[in-house]
Amino acid sequence: MTSFGKFIKRFLLAFMLLVVVFHVLVAGLLLIWKTQPINNSMFMLTHRLTGGTVTQTWAEYDAIAKSAKQAAIASEDAKFSQHNGFDLEGIEVARKKNEATGKMSAGGSTITQQLAKNLFLTSHRSYIRKGEEAIITVMIETLWDKQRILTAYLNVAEFGKGIYGIEAAAQHYFHKSAAKLNRDESALLISMLTNPKYYQDNQNDRRLRNKQRIVKKRMNSAALP
């Protein structure tokens, strides 16, 4: 074997070892976070490393208003309580849209997939990241129940510059706890998730308010875990 061949072999072995170590770390954190509050994520860590301040307070499932949980499912993942982490129909729709536009503009991501990205990955769009996201999604769905997944999602989602989690968002925008959010407030906060930093300073944006109305109409049909 040539020197170059040996180098490639060592490189591949080192890369495979790093991949294994990464997934072992992910599994370990998921086991810890199955019962313990999550006060950090890749998105929060990135925000801190770039000099930002993170505001987040953990809220358990029963400390989050029913309307907020309904809004999240109605807006982000209508089949959340039924699927195993992947909405195959949504993925197919996203694939066709991406083929039509020639870029990865749509992801068809479920709540679990978004949680996997927020906790361990970055917002960079690529098929490699989507593949890693899929692996972590399977791990989350295997180790956690649906209530834990929804609770974690609502606690680590970004609602503005440095504002993470539904409790911090409720306090920042409405000066109340997440448990006391009403339907209008819940629908508005969840509608902000598509572009939270922009909507933080543009609360009357027409697209935001239109989505708020749509989410509010769909909330009653959302099946909670």
Automatic annotation (TrEMBL):
UniProt keywords (A-Z) are: Cell inner membrane, Cell membrane, Cell shape, Cell wall biogenesis/degradation, Glycosyltransferase, Membrane, Peptidoglycan synthesis, Transferase, Transmembrane, Transmembrane helix
Q: Which Pfam families match?
A: Transgly
Question: EC number(s) of the enzyme?
Answer: 2.4.99.28
Transmembrane stretches in the record are: 12-33
Recorded superkingdom = Bacteria
Query: Which reaction(s) does its UniProt entry say it catalyses?
Result: [GlcNAc-(1->4)-Mur2Ac(oyl-L-Ala-gamma-D-Glu-L-Lys-D-Ala-D-Ala)](n)-di-trans,octa-cis-undecaprenyl diphosphate + beta-D-GlcNAc-(1->4)-Mur2Ac(oyl-L-Ala-gamma-D-Glu-L-Lys-D-Ala-D-Ala)-di-trans,octa-cis-undecaprenyl diphosphate = [GlcNAc-(1->4)-Mur2Ac(oyl-L-Ala-gamma-D-Glu-L-Lys-D-Ala-D-Ala)](n+1)-di-trans,octa-cis-undecaprenyl diphosphate + di-trans,octa-cis-undecaprenyl diphosphate + H(+)
- Predominant location category: membrane
Q: From the record, what ranges are coiled-coil?
A: none
Record flagged with keyword Plastid = no
Record localization: Cell inner membrane
Pathway named in the protein's UniProt entry: Cell wall biogenesis; peptidoglycan biosynthesis
Q: How does it sit in the membrane?
A: Single-pass membrane protein
The record's InterPro entries line, in alphabetical order, gives: Glyco_trans_51, Lysozyme-like_dom_sf, PBP_transglycosylase, Pep_trsgly
Q: Where is the Glycosyl transferase family domain?
A: 53-219
Function summary: Peptidoglycan polymerase that catalyzes glycan chain elongation from lipid-linked precursors.
Q: Say which family it is in.
A: Belongs to the glycosyltransferase 51 family.
> What protein name is recorded for this chain?
Biosynthetic peptidoglycan transglycosylase
The protein's organism comes out as Psychrobacter coccoides
Gene symbol of the encoding locus: mtgA
